[in-house]
Structures are given as C-alpha cells and as structure tokens.
Amino acid sequence: MTVKLVKTQEVQILLDKLSGLDQQAGDARLKAIVRRIVGDLFATIEDFNISDDEVWQALNFAARGSAEFGLWAAGLGLERFLDIRADAADAAAGLTGGTPRTIEGPLYVAGAPESVGYARMDDGSEEGKVDTLILHGQVRDVNGAPIEGAKVEIWHANSLGNYSYFDTTQSEFNLRRTIFTDADGRYVTRTTLPVGYACPEGGSTETILKNIGRHGNRPAHVHYFVSAENKRHLTTQINIDGDPYLHDDFAYATRDELVPPVKRLTGGALAERCSVSGEHVEIQFDIMLHAASSKQEEHASARPRAAG
Ligand code: FE
Q1: From the CA of 176, how far away is ligand 1's center (Å)?
Q2: What is the CA(56)–ligand 1 centre distance, in A?
Q3: Reduced to 3 states, what is the DSSP secondary structure of residue 141?
Q4: Which of helix, strand or coil describes residue 192?
Q5: Backbone angles phi, psi at 259, to 5 degrees
Q6: Residue 84's closest CA among 69, 97, 103?
Q7: What is the DSSP letter of 182?
Q8: CA geometry: angle at 122 spanning 172 and 157, to 5°?
Q9: pLDDT at 3
Q10: What is the Cα–Cα distance from 105 to 305, expressed in whole angstroms?
Q11: CA 147-153-156 angle, 5° bins
C-alpha cells in the first residue's frame, strides 16, 4: 500500500490544524516539527496498514514503558545519531584531534565525591570477587599541553552489571567519582573491573529489541564526563577489550579509538600508589579536549539527570 489518504486535502488540513498552523499563537518552529512528526506517523500507519488495535497497543506500550525511554534512546540509535550529527559538524568545521565522543547513556548521577589526582571508586564490597582495575591517564589540550584541574567524572557498573543509585543494594556513589587532574594533568583511580550488562529483562526496551530480532547487551565499559575551563565538555566511554559484545553493542557506542589496551600486571608504581597487592588490571586512557568556542560548550547537554 502507498500513502494516498495522508496526501488528501482533508488530512492535510487536519495536519495544519492539529499542529496549530491556523493559530497566531505558539512557536512556528515547534508547529512545523509537530506537523512533520504527526504527518510521518500518519503515513506510517497508512503505508503499513497498521490496525486500530495496533495503534492503541503501541500507545499503551509506550506509556507503560516510558520509564525506560533513556534506554530506548540508546537502543534505537537516537543517542548514536546525535553523536553522528555532532561529529559531522566537527568535520565540517575542520576540528580534528580530540578524544572521540560517545553516548552518555541514562545512568549518570550528579554529586559524586570529589578529589584531586586520585580516588578509590569502589567500596570494597566486591574485593576478591572481581579484578581490581587501576584506571589512569592524562588530560591534555589538542596541542598536547597537560591540563591541571580538569574535572574527570567516571562511573561504571559493578560485577553484576548494575549501577549504584539505580541499584539500591549498593552503597551511595559506589563506582562513581569526580577526580580533578593534578599539576601534570593526570588522574588515577583504583576501582573494580566492570562487566557488561543487558537491558532489564521483560522491560519495554528488551521487548522491542527482541521483537525486531536484536539483543539488549552492552560490552563492559566505563563512562566519562571530562571538562575544564575554556575547553569543550567531553562525554565519552571506554570499552573493556576482549568483551564478547565489544563490537556488538546494543547502544552503538563502541569506537575503535575508545578501546584502550588492558594490561594484567602484578605490582608496579601505580599498584603501590593505589595500595593494590597481587594481580590486577591496568588501563591507561588519555584524553584530549578541544578548546571551547562558547561558554555553553564547556558544559554537558541539558539532558535531565539524577542527583545523589
Ligand atoms: Fe553504562
């Protein structure tokens, strides 16, 4: 079936009216956006011969599943698309050399404990059950100059793939820290090696993905917000190399530049500094920030976020 009804005068007038185009009041750009989205929806219903029952079922599904909209944004590629747009804008502006961005995901929590240079991120509750990770690096500008006082916010899942705050069995701000870089632009953290996780079983995201033949798994990863005065805010992640879902992320966040080598070591200077004895894992992740061209660029997007 091809779209015919939507093109009729009757439906076109309906679209004009429902998007407020016949009213003086209201925002012109918003009217145009509403008209486009609703018109595309009407065309989809007509083109795929979607039944009344299916329309109401879909609305009800979205209403009931709305608590997971953050995961829908990841799984349906919306977050990835926003990154593709931002990357294209950078390329058009000739911006190269910074650490690549990748999606934020819905599990950031503001207010994590702050420190300078070093932090231990885990509360010790998984010690011995999971590899200890020493994660460190240097924050520099695109010319290679170290940035002192850069704000490095790190958050990741525990060995069950769960995040503190959302998982209320974990201590407050477990595996969430804000580290300001030292005089050499360096940050060091002792934490636990995260594992990958999946969308909640039976949730709306998993239901959609399953019905279109996909899975809802993410490879193990660590989230970063990195910011500094006059530098562009960076939202990114690193993936843990070797994860079976490394290149099969349901959220499309994997980028080759964001898979640093994983070293398995015993002892060493960093281990000593972090009071780690025995075998552990070390990952170095250096970050390069672009100069900000406006104050707004120094901050993360206005996405609503949880605060602990
Ligand atoms: Fe995550």
Answers
A1: 12
A2: 32
A3: strand
A4: strand
A5: -125, 80
A6: 103
A7: -
A8: 80
A9: 81
A10: 10
A11: 140
Class of domain 71-307: mainly beta
Structure tokens at 154: 């790190």
Domain boundaries, the chain: 5-50, 71-307
How far is the centre of ligand 1, averaged over its atoms, from the C-alpha of 222 (Å)?
A: 7
Q: What is the rounded distance in angstroms from the CA atom of residue 215 to the CA atom of residue 117?
A: 38
Alpha helices, DSSP H, located in the chain: 9-18, 28-47, 52-65, 69-75, 78-92, 204-211, 269-273
pLDDT (average), residues 109-115? 98
36, amino acid identity:
R
Q: pLDDT tens digits for 237-265?
A: 999 999 999 999 999 999 999 999 999 99
Amino acid identity for residue 15 in this structure: L
At 139, list the tokens. Answer: 């924050």
Kindly report the average pLDDT of the chain as a whole number: 97
Distance from the CA of 301 to the center of ligand 1, in angstroms?
17
Reference 238, options 223, 250, 219, 218; nearest CA is: 223
- Mean pLDDT across 283-293: 97
- Rounded to the nearest angstrom, the distance between the alpha carbon of 157 and the centre of ligand 1 is 7
pLDDT at 123: 98
| Average pLDDT estimate for 214-241 | 98
What is the per-residue pLDDT for 164?
98
Query: With the C-alpha atoms ordered 173, 176, 182, 188, is the resulting torsion angle positive or negative?
Result: positive
**pLDDT (tens digit per residue) in 169-191:** 999 999 999 999 999 999 999 99
What is the Å distance from ligand 1's center to 253 Cα? 10
Distance 141 CA to ligand 1 centre (A): 26
Q: Report yes or no: 121 and 175 within 8 Å, Cβ to Cβ.
A: yes
Cα 308 to ligand 1 centre (Å): 17
Q: What is the pLDDT, as a whole number, of residue 1?
A: 62
CA 200 / ligand 1 centre spacing (Å): 13
- 195 Cα to the center of ligand 1, angstroms: 10
Distance CA 239, CA 193 (A): 11
Please give the average per-residue pLDDT across 129-156, as a whole number: 97
